[in-house]
Each structure stands twice: as structure tokens, then as C-alpha cells.
Amino acid sequence: MTNDPDDDLPPLPEDVGADVLTARMERLEDTILRGVSRIEQVEASVTQQTATIAKGSAHLERQVHRFTVHSLWSFGGGIFLAALALLAVGVAIGQQWGRQEGYDEASTENAAASWGATDEGRWAYAFAQTGDLAMIRNCTGKGWEISKGTCSPQVASDHMIYGWHLIDQPALPVRRKRRKTP
């Protein structure tokens, strides 16, 4: 009998009987059966572990998808809330600004109305109605000239200086004669 290099058992002597060979064969068969059984157990365990990993992977994938969707909704909701807050602040500032503008305009109009009810206000209104106020503003009176940004009366072509008296009388132009200089 020749030795098999793959055989883990020690070599048999040449004078071994059939009983010894049969016993040895039975032991080899038992060893092989135990090896096959162990391989089948490992295979079942690997299959079970693979199924568990696949199940865990699918669960993890669902959780990641859910987290991603929730994150996107949270982000979108946050952007929406920030825009809504900015809109509310803008509305509040706009209302306050408009209210202040209204108060300013009303106070100006109230002041103008109060002044218009005074004697000076009525006098200025009457002066404006005659057109004399525009004449003063535009420096267009007879004999008036604009020099260096100021309006001043000068001697007119008829050798008169035109102006008015600053007293509490109607605003009518007064003619004065020019004074002679020595």
C-alpha cells in the first residue's frame, strides 16, 4: 500500500489485516461525516448571518431614506419660517414707517392750518392772492434787480424806488421818491 500525501493518518504497515483496515475506514468515514456536518453548520450559520446583515442593511437603508426626507422637510420648513419671519419684520417696519410719515405730515398740516388761522397767516394768504408774494419770491417788482444772489430795489427808469412799508397795513406797494445825495 502506498502512502497518500493528503492522508493525515500515519502510514500502515504492510501486514495489516482486514479488520484494522475496516476500522480505519470507519474512522475516516466518521471524520469525513463530522467535517461535512461541521461545513453544513458553518454554511447554515453564514447563510443566517448573511440574511441578518441583509435585513439590517435594508432597515438601515430605510432609516437613511427617512432621515434624508425628514431633513429635507426640516430644511424647507426652516427656510419657509425664516422667510415668513422676514416678511413679518418687513411688514412691521413698513407699518411703523408709514405711521411715522403720517404723523409727520399731519403735524406739518396741523401746524400750517394753525398758522393760517393767525393774523399773519391770513395776511400772507391775502398777499399771495394779489400776486405780490410771487413778485417778491421771483424778484420781478418794478426797479428790482438780482445781484449776487440777493434781490434789492434799484432806481427805476422813472427815477423812483419801489418797495413797501413794513407796518400793519394792507400790503400795497408804496412809491417813494429817490433821495437826493449831496
How would you describe this structure to a colleague?
The protein has 182 residues and is mainly α. The chain contains three helices and four strands; from the N terminus they run H-H-H-E-E-E-E. The strands form two sheets. A two-stranded antiparallel ribbon has the order 1-2. A hairpin with a 2-residue loop joins strand 1 and strand 2. The longest helix is centred in the middle third of the chain and has 99 residues, at 18-116. The model has no long low-confidence stretch (mean pLDDT 79).
Blueprint of the fold:
Elements: H1 18-116, H2 119-130, H3 132-138, E1 144-147, E2 150-153, E3 160-163, E4 174-177
Antiparallel strand pairs: 1-2, 3-4
Keywords:
single chain, 182 residues, mainly alpha, two-stranded antiparallel sheet, 4 strands
What strand order characterises the main sheet? 1-2
User: Which consecutive residue ranges, at least 5 long each, have pLDDT under 50?
Assistant: none
Main beta-sheet annotation:
2 strands, antiparallel
Distance between the termini: 168 Å
How does the helix and strand content classify structurally?
mainly alpha
Question: Per DSSP, what share of the residues sits in E-state strands of 2 or more residues?
Answer: 5-15%
Give the fraction of residues assigned to helices: 55-70%
